[in-house]
Design goal:
Blueprint lengths: L3 E8 L1 E5 L4 E3 L4 E2 L3 E5 L6 E9 L6 E4 L2 E3 L4 H13 L9 E8 L9 H17 L5 H6 L13 E4 L12 E5 L7 E8 L8 H11 L1 H23 L3 H21 L9 H17 L4 E4 L6 E6 L3 H11 L10 E2 L10 H7 L8 E8 L5 E3 L12
Parallel strand pairs: 7-9, 15-16
Antiparallel strand pairs: 1-6, 1-17, 2-5, 3-4, 5-10, 6-9, 7-8, 10-11, 12-14, 12-16, 13-14
Helix pairs in contact: 1-2, 5-6
The structure holds (3R)-3-hydroxy-3-methyl-5-(phosphonooxy)pentanoic acid.
(3R)-3-hydroxy-3-methyl-5-(phosphonooxy)pentanoic acid (PMV) binds next to α2 and α4.
Length: about 375
C-alpha cells in the first residue's frame, strides 16, 4: 500500500524588532509586533520529511536522528491545525511519520525552532493539501516560526483578536528588494546554555516594568520607522534600530527579576568593535543584534564585506585558521586595510569565536524531492 511522502526545507530568521513576551501563552500571541530577515537556506535550514500510510502502526517522529515524543504539545498543535484544514480527507485516518534535521549544529544556540516548525508546517500542508493560514499554524509551534513562512523582510502582526486569528506574518519586501544586504553570524565559543525563551519571556512579562514601557511607548514607532527604512533601503536607520532593539531586549532581560543574561564578555567586545568601526566612518556601516544567546548577528552592505571580514579576523583571530573560519566567504582580494585598523587600535583576542557564517537574505520554505524517510517510512 502506498506511502504518501513530502519533504520541505525552511529558513532561519533573525529578528530586528524583537518578539519578547506573550499575552496568551496557549495560543502564542505576542505582546508586540516584530520584524525579521529571513536568511538564505543555503547556509542554514531545517529539512523535514512527513509521510502517512495505512500501513503505519503508530505516529512516530525523529529529530536530528533521535526518536522523540510524538505527543509534544507544540507538535500536536501544528498537526491538529493542519488536519482541521486538510483537503486530502482520506489521509486523515493514517498514522504519520516525521523526520527532521538541521544543516547546522543545534547546539550553537542559533534559531533552530523557527526553521524547524516552519518546515514541519510547510511539509504537512503540502501532504494534506492545505494552502492557507500557514504562518498562523507555525506560530503555534514556536512564535518566531511564523516569520520563517515568508522570505525576505517579514513582519509578525501581534493582532487584536482573542482567538489569534489575526496574529499572522506578512512579507514587507522580498529578498530581491535589497540584494546588497548581508548577514554574518559570529558563533561565540561558549558552552553555556541559557534560559529558554519560553521561561525567559514569561518572567519578563511578570516582572519587567521596562517591557511594559517598551510595548506601549517604543515598539509602535520603531515598527513604522523600520518598515520605511526597509522600503527605502536606508541602512543608516535600519542599523540604528537593529542595535537599539537588541540593546533594549537585553536590558529587559536584566530588568527581569531574577535577571536573565544571554550576552557574555565576547558579545560586549563585538558590540564595542561595531560602535568603534561606525565611529571611525561617522556612519553606520555595521550593525549587531543578539537573540537569546551570546552569538552575534551582524548586518552590513555587500560593498563593506571584505573590510569587515578583515576586521573580524584581526579582532578575533582563529587559533588555527584552516581557511574555513569565515564559512561562505571566498575572496582573493581579502586584505587587512592597515590604516583603518591602526586607527581602530584593535587588540586581538584569539580563539573567542568558533567560526563565522556569512550569508544573506533568502526566500521562504521550498519543497524538494530528496526525502529523509524510505519507502517504508523509516529514516534513511
Ligand atoms: O519563538 P521563540 O520562542 O524561539 O522566541 C524567539 C525570541 C527571540 O529570538 C529572542 C526574538 C525573536 O523575535 O526571534
Amino acid at each position: 500500500m502506498a506511502v504518501h511522502t513530502c519533504t520541505a526545507l525552511a529558513p532561519v530568521n533573525i529578528a530586528v524588532i524583537k518578539y519578547w513576551g506573550k499575552k496568551n501563552e496557549d495560543l502564542i500571541l505576542p505582546v508586540n509586533d516584530s520584524i525579521s530577515l529571513t536568511l538564505s537556506k543555503k547556509k542554514m535550514c531545517a529539512k523535514t520529511t512527513v509521510a502517512c500510510s495505512p500501513t503505519f502502526e503508530s505516529d512516530r517522529i525523529w529529530l536530528n536522528g533521535i526518536e522523540q515524543d510524538f505527543q509534544s504539545p507544540r507538535i500536536q498543535n501544528c498537526i491538529r491545525e493542519i488536519k482541521r484544514l486538510a483537503r486530502k480527507k482520506d489521509y486523515l485516518s493514517y498514522h504519520l511519520h516525521i523526520c527532521s534535521e538541521n544543516n547546522f549544529p543545534t547546539a550553537a544556540g542559533l534559531a533552530s525552532s523557527a526553521a524547524g516548525f516552519a518546515c514541519l508546517v510547510k511539509a504537512l500542508a503540502v501532504l494534506y493539501d492545505v494552502d492557507d493560514e500557514l504562518s498562523k499554524i507555525a506560530r503555534q509551534g514556536s512564535g518566531s516560526a511564523c516569520r520563517s513562512i515568508y522570505g525576505g523582510f517579514v513582519q509578525w502582526l501581534s493582532g487584536n483578536q482573542n482567538d489569534g486569528s489575526d496574529s499572522i506574518a506578512k512579507q514587507i519586501a522580498p529578498k530581491e528588494h535589497w540584494p546588497e544586504m548581508r548577514v554574518m553570524i559570529l558563533v561565540v565559543n561558549s558552552k553555556k546554555k541559557g534560559t529558554s525563551s519560553t521561561n525567559g519571556m514569561r518572567n519578563s512579562v511578570l516582572t519587567s516594568s521596562l517591557l511594559k514601557h517598551r510595548v506601549t511607548e517604543v515598539v509602535p514607532q520603531r515598527v513604522q520607522t523600520l518598515n520605511s527604512a526597509i522600503l527605502q533601503k536606508n541602512f543608516q536607520t535600519f542599523a540604528e534600530i537593529a542595535m537599539k532593539e537588541s540593546n533594549q531586549f537585553h536590558a529587559i532581560c536584566l530588568d527581569t527579576y531574577p535577571p536573565i543574561h544571554y550576552l557574555n564578555s565576547t558579545s560586549f567586545m563585538i558590540i564595542e568593535l561595531v560602535h568603534a568601526y561606525n565611529e571611525l566612518y561617522k556612519k553606520n556601516k555595521l550593525a549587531y543584534t543578539f537573540d537569546a544567546g551570546c552569538n552575534a548577528f551582524l548586518f552590513m552592505l555587500e560593498e563593506d564585506v571584505p573590510e569587515i571580514c578583515a576586521l573580524i579576523k584581526a579582532a578575533f583571530p582563529p587559533i588555527d585558521d584552516n581557511g574555513n573560519f569565515i564559512k561562505g566567504f571566498i575572496d582573493s582580494s581579502f586584505e587587512v586595510p592597515l590604516d583603518t585598523f591602526k586607527k581602530l587600535n584593535i587588540a586581538p583576542h584569539p580563539g573567542l569565536l568558533q567560526h563565522v557564517i556569512y550569508t544573506q537574505v533568502g526566500s521562504g520554505p521550498a519543497i524538494i524531492s530528496e526525502h529523509l524517510l524510505n519507502e517504508k517510512g523509516l529514516p534513511l
